[in-house]
Amino acid sequence: MSFYLDIDLRRVTPCFQPSASGPRRLQQPPSGRPRDRPGSVVHPTRISATNSVDVDRSLRRSDNAIRRRPRGTSMATIRVLAEEDVPAAAALLARVYPEHRWSSQAACESYIREMLFDNPWRDPEVPSWVAEEDGRISGFYAVMPRRMRLRGRAVRVAVGCQFMVDPLKRNSLTALQMAKAFVSGPQDLTLADAASDWARRMWIALGGTAPLHYSLHWTRPLRPARYALSLLERRAALPRPLALAARPAGALADALVSRLRPNRFHENNDDFSEEALDAATMLADLPAVLDGSILQPMYDARSLAWLLDQTARKTFYGTLRAQVVRDGKRQIAGWYLYYVRAGALNEVIQIAARRDAYDRVLRRLLADAWRHGATAVRGRVDPRFARELSDQHCWCRWDGAWTLAYSRDPAIMAAIHQGDAFLSRLEGEWWLRFMGA
Amino acid sequence: MATIRVFAEDDVPAVAALFARVYPELRWSSQAAYESYFREMLFDNPWRDPELPSWVAEQDGRISGFYGVVPRRMILRGRPLRVAMGCQFFVDPHQRHSLTALQLAKACISGPQDLTLTDGAGDESRRMWIGVGWTAPLLYSLHWTRPLRPARYVLSLLDGRATLPPALTFAARPLAALADALAARLRPNRFLREQTELTEHALDPATMLAHLPDVLRGSALQPVYDAHSLAWLLDQTARKTRHGRLRARAVRDGERLLGWYLYHVQAGGVSEVVQIAARDGSFDRVFLRFLADAWRHGAAAVRGRLEPRYVQELRQRHCWFRWDGPWTLVHSRHADVVAAIQQGDAFLSRLEGEWWLRFMGG
Q1: Which among B186, B188, B322 has the least Cβ separation from residue A396?
Q2: What pTM does this model have?
Q3: What does the pLDDT look like over A160-197, one tens digit per residue?
Q4: CATH code for the domain in which residue B168 is found
Q5: CA distance A344 to A364
Q6: Rg of chain A taking only CA atoms, in angstroms
Q7: Which CATH architecture has domain A2-210?
Q8: Is there a single domain that holds both residue B316 and residue B177?
Q9: Across the interface, which of A211, A397, A400 has its CB nearest the CB of B321?
Q10: What ipTM was reported for this prediction?
Q11: B131: number of CA atoms within 13 Å, CB side?
Q12: How many inter-chain contacts (A to B, CB under 8 Å) are there?
């Protein structure tokens, strides 16, 4: 979820204040009639939305956008997204993201319907939202309900995954109205994990937090010269002919580097073995690999299979590869899931491992990615394994996207602030394809 | 079970002897020099507070364990806090399987302080401390590194780990120098062309003290200094020459002080940053001045502790983070104190921890 706005955040009233009466229950609008949920914000907003696929670009756009002053204010009607709204929401997405990669409007509508109305966690009390103005959809906030567990207790989670406002309405209060509607639901935890810096500021002004350790990503160069060259090429820091001429030297340097001790991925010094990971294995062994996390995701056979299928369909980053790692006694050590793409940076979806085997599962992933031609691998930092990541020469960085969290339950927030939550890219919005690939 | 009691000045020789047994590889010029340093740090520091003492473990009339504490002062959103900064923790090698370490740890946190803090704990210590209720906030255990001469930096890493034969490393140096000369022409590394409107001068404790409120604004948990304690602390930091000479510079825009940086200059190696502080909105400009200064002084790279508030600026300037070995550990009875640290809302530079101490030698 990411968006940007032009607003005096010091004047925003926090809406996450704990309530003595507990969370508000959501009332469904009668037969599609709009229900007014006016916001209480005192300054105009300017927002737009981005997808997690290109956060840097969204940040650049936001910098341009905030130079223009808003010209007026207006209040939209915020109501629950109904299936009949899907064509209008898809049309809005096309207006906000004219560069998206959907083959047709129908394909986009079908995807929105599948994600928001046919997902395995569908919960009418944790809905998506639309803003309506003059009989037209002017804002859309897609929400994916999820399930987690805090020390055995079930936790309802709402993951914000698409947040957009009509470009013509960006000087209205629509964004804040929708954000407030979203967080006021009955869920125990509200999450987003691809938010822009402007979204973070609004979130914090509303009373939420942005835990930095879940916003960090690690990168491990496997072919460092080729990786460095690709970075320079992408930033146009080197003239293209020079970059091309440097490639043979880069390949030579990488061949040399692969012989150095930390990079000898072709050597296999343990009795661990690997095989393809399937949803059944993952489900059966989840308790073993999540042991030690206070806040854990909860899956069943259907939801996990569906999620993995959806993740595999995201081909923008390459082909999904999922491997389970077993120790010499054939006991589960852990698994890894990542997108394979030779000659490029490979994105890691999830590494899950027994606490005593994380380093070896990570090492297996690095070796696998190296064999498949990756120049580097990147994944989200799991704060519990910072030492193991450092030991394997992974470097961390904040890459421009924020994880945002809010809960009225201090125990849930404590687990997140302490880094005791298992929040991989599967638990957030990373695997979604609202942008079409 | 050992007897745990408050550390007294008369215990210094016995603790120094214990230290020599625990760390035989660390050599002070003499036992007397080490004892004198011990006395100065633990009995003559400007924050001395008899209610926040150091602790010893005694067994069969012999000192078998030691926990050194330097009291400090902080504020949390204006509320004064007493801080016990743990700085030396060791147990006789023959007693390591006993409960002595745990007894010492419990004695330390049972004091009247609002916050107990240490920032040089090993991984084994971390596990034990977490077992007795401490937390290890990852954000304050991460360090950032910014290569300035990347090829030389990589070579120094390979050299340090003996990954390459020394002859090969030596032969690669001219090539590395060439690569670094090229890298210095790339946009992110053109330090000398930036910000010519800013001026710099030597930073003194008086300037630092006068502008502390400006640079600390925005952090919920802040250190508290007075003229004497700050001057003493900077003097002690300057005496730590293992990482190079201390360089402390204030950065101004006209008459307005934007911030400052303190770091140990290490030509050809990694220069360690002690503190970078800046007014709201000025961190990037101060940081850029610092990078240019370190580059001019020949640093291959610079490294400092992550200041969570400035993660965006550090990213923008191509810094990478890493857990580099020591853990920061905290304990407090007050949930808001721990929350401020876990949420990255504390100003905890290396000056606020134990980094400037020289128990392990110069």
Answers
A1: B322
A2: 0.86
A3: 998 999 888 776 788 888 988 999 999 999 999 989 88
A4: 3.40.630.30
A5: 18
A6: 22
A7: 3-Layer(aba) Sandwich (3.40)
A8: yes
A9: A397
A10: 0.88
A11: 11
A12: 56
